[in-house]
């Protein structure tokens, strides 16, 4: 599947669009971590929960669970939410 990488995480991948494999969001993020060590920790915390400032969209639809099923033809967009004050 194609995965769109946000600019703050491109230091891991060196590119904005990468390939990954997995049947769930969690498996895809684990596959990305094998290919680009350390990237998963930026998206998933120590309690195995998605970090609050990260958003995930599959084919344009927001997903919020690591167990979310994905298909090989899906496109995953990872977005880092902006905050400020």
UniProtKB/TrEMBL annotation:
Organism: Thauera sedimentorum
The protein's name in its UniProt record: MoaD/ThiS family protein
InterPro entries attached to this UniProt entry: Beta-grasp_dom_sf, Mopterin_synth/thiamin_S_b, Sulfur_Carrier/Prot_Modifier, ThiS/MoaD-like
Coiled coil: none
Pfam family membership, one: ThiS
């Amino acid at each position: 599947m194609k995965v769109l990488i946000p600019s703050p995480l491109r230091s891991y991948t060196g590119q904005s669009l990468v390939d990954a494999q997995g049947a769930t969001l969690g498996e895809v993020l684990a596959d990305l971590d094998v290919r680009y060590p350390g990237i998963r920790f930026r998206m998933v915390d120590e309690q195995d929960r998605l970090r609050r400032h990260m958003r995930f969209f599959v084919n344009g639809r927001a997903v919020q669970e690591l167990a979310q099923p994905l298909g090989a033809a899906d496109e995953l967009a990872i977005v880092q939410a902006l905050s400020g004050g």
